[in-house]
Amino acid sequence: MKSDAEGFELPYTVLVGRDSDIIDVYQITKLPRLIIVGKDGMIALTEKFLPFDRLKEQVESAVR
Fold first, then answer.
1. pLDDT tens for the 64 residues of the chain, in order
2. Strand (E) or helix (H) holding 4
């Protein structure tokens, strides 16, 4: 979970939705879910599973 994300030393914020209000804020109805939120606070992508190459592309696009 959070410690897993910290171990990767990612250059962007990772939020684990469990025990946070993120599920209510973004009205998430299905879990588990990968949600990429852009700098504007809007959901850029929501997927259950995503190949690494596509994930990397989507994250890089959202944080630019």
1. 456 667 777 777 777 766 778 778 878 777 777 888 888 888 888 888 778 888 888 888 887 7
2. helix 2-7
pTM: 0.57
Half-sphere exposure of 61 (CA within 13 A, CB side): 11
Cβ contacts of 33 within 8 Å, gap of 6 or more: 17, 46, 47, 48
Phi-psi region of 3 (alpha: psi -120 to 50; beta: other; left: phi over 0): alpha
Q: How do the domains of the chain map onto residue ranges?
A: 2-63
Give bridge partners of residue 34 from the DSSP assignment: 47
Which of helix, strand or coil describes residue 34? Answer: strand
